[in-house]
Amino acid sequence: MLALFLSGCILKEQEQPQQPPAPVEPVQPPVTVPEQPKAEPGQNVPPPPKIQTLNWPASVSPLVAQMLKTDGITAGSVLLVDNVKNSTNGSLQSAKATAALQSALKDKTQFTLVTPQQLAVAKQTLGLSADDSLVSRSKAVGLARYVGAQYVLYSNAEGDVKSPTLQMQLMLVQTGEIIWSGSGAVLH
């Protein structure tokens, strides 16, 4: 009986009609994209973004000249030039502005400048990061007291980053009094 049963299964499989093979689709030739002619060096290169250069030395010189005319400054007094703050609506190279201020003041007899090295050591001692921009006048005055300065020059660039204004204030460390203030457009 088992033989009959098994032979019936074989017959059933053979009786089922075989499905026709699926039609073979014709092979499409590969699509080729024509090569673009190679650009020669210097052609079709997008221009680099325009970097605006600000003339910090020319921008700070008139303000420094005004400040040096302030009455009551004791010749040879120690001055802390605080980092120029960036309060504009974009990125500004404030380190170059600070360097221009220090350069404009370094050969003047009215002030002896706190060196960048002295400032870095003082900031580290007080637990401030080396690039701390002090942000507040009271913090700048406190740092000036620590390094033994009699004056602090507090500077701020503000407005539109494409045409900022530089504001400067000379403060007496002992009292925190602003003894001179000036502002001017930053030149390109």
UniProtKB/TrEMBL annotation:
One record GO biological process: peptidoglycan biosynthetic process
Source organism superkingdom: Bacteria
Compositionally biased tracts (Pro residues): 18-32
Gene3D superfamilies: ABC-type transport auxiliary lipoprotein component (3.40.50.10610)
Gene Ontology CC annotation, any one: periplasmic side of cell outer membrane
GO molecular function, one term: enzyme regulator activity
Region ranges (Disordered): 14-50
Keyword DNA damage (UniProt): no
A Pfam family per the record: LpoB
Keyword vocabulary terms for this entry: Cell outer membrane, Cell shape, Membrane, Peptidoglycan synthesis, Signal
Known partners and oligomeric status: Interacts with PBP1b.
Known role: Regulator of peptidoglycan synthesis that is essential for the function of penicillin-binding protein 1B (PBP1b).
Similarity-based family: Belongs to the LpoB family.
Name of the molecule in the record: Penicillin-binding protein activator LpoB
Upper taxonomic lineage: Bacteria, Pseudomonadati, Pseudomonadota, Gammaproteobacteria, Enterobacterales
